[in-house]
Design a protein that fits this description.
Chain lengths: 108, 122
């Protein structure tokens, strides 16, 4: 099973700042089958990025994903107030399709 | 609009059985793989397994295989997750979610149900 480790656990930033979130895999994620999700309190996760770097439908271009192999990054170029939430990565290249533990982006 | 609508919250006792549902609308139900995901405060998001409604192929996480069962009823565009004997540790929020590429699970989960809260307590 591929273990995904996200860092940092919490990121304290101000609106307008840049956020950089990391997701490290215990084994190579095949074909960069890695996704990022945003979850706001009381809501289901929402797909932001798939295939490591492709934005999902209707996702603003301030969200971008990069990386390959075992190291992946989600970048939010300028934080909007609605972006303060928890972010998860997931690999779907190798069953079981595991999730990372999440990074909370909070208002500083 | 594509939607997955899940059944309501459940409160059960250990040892009881349970079947929760996930009804699809606005899409070709049989063409997209459906995953089930659990969320708990202690373990975060956990992937339980996946089913292809077209032919009912299933795959399970080893952590859940033998304890849960995933099925579909194509006639009513509905997927199910069931337990024959619940444990307290099964408590959590359960989501169904669609893999966003027809006939292929190599895609992120682009449509999610609203979640079903399952509470197992004596």
């Amino acid at each position: 099973e591929i273990v995904l480790t996200q860092s940092p656990g919490t990121l304290s930033l101000s609106p307008g700042e840049r956020a950089t979130l990391s997701c490290r895999a215990s084994q190579i994620v095949s074909s960069s089958f890695l996704a990022w999700y945003q979850q706001r309190p009381g809501q289901a996760p929402r797909l932001l990025i798939y295939g490591a770097s492709s934005r999902a439908t209707a996702i603003p271009d301030r969200f971008s994903g990069s990386g390959s192999g075992t190291d992946f990054t989600l970048t939010i170029s300028r934080l909007d107030p609605e972006d303060f939430a928890v972010y998860f990565c997931q690999q779907y290249g190798s069953s079981p399709f595991t999730f990372g533990g999440g990074t909370k982006v909070e208002i500083k | 609009e594509v939607q997955l609508v899940q059944s309501g919250a459940e409160g059960k006792k250990p040892g009881e059985s349970l079947k929760i549902s996930c009804k699809s609308s606005g899409q070709s139900f049989t063409s997209y793989w459906i995953s089930w995901v659990r969320q708990t405060p202690g373990k975060g998001l956990e992937w339980l397994g996946i089913i292809y409604p077209g032919d009912s192929q299933t795959r399970y996480s080893p952590a859940f295989e033998g304890h849960v069962s995933i099925s579909v009823d194509k006639s009513i565009d509905t997927a199910y997750l069931q337990w024959s004997s619940l444990k307290a540790s099964d408590s959590g929020i359960y989501y169904c979610a669609r893999h966003g590429l027809p006939r292929n699970y190599y895609h992120g989960l682009d449509v999610w149900g609203q979640g079903t809260t399952v509470t197992v307590s004596s």
